[in-house]
Amino acid sequence: MLTRRRLLVGGSTVLLAIGSAGWWLLRQPTAPTGFAYRDDELARAQAFLAAHPVIDAHAHPGRTFVRGAEHVRGMVRLYAWRGTFERRTLADMRAGGVDVAAFAAVADFQTLALSDATGLTSARAFEPGEAWASYRRQIDNLNALVGSGWVQRIDRPADIAAVRAQGQIGALLTVEGGDFLEGKPERVGEAYADGVRSITLMHYRHNELGDIMTEAPRHGGLTRAGTAVVREMNRVGMIVDLAHASEATAFGALAVSTRPVMASHTHVHQHAAGAPPRFISQELATATASAGGGVIGAWPAGIGISDLNGFVDRTLELIDRVGIDHVCLGTDMDANYKPVLDSYAKLPVYVAGLFQRGLAEDEVAKLVGGNFLRVFTAVQTR
Question: Does residue 261 sit within a domain?
Answer without folding.
Answer: yes
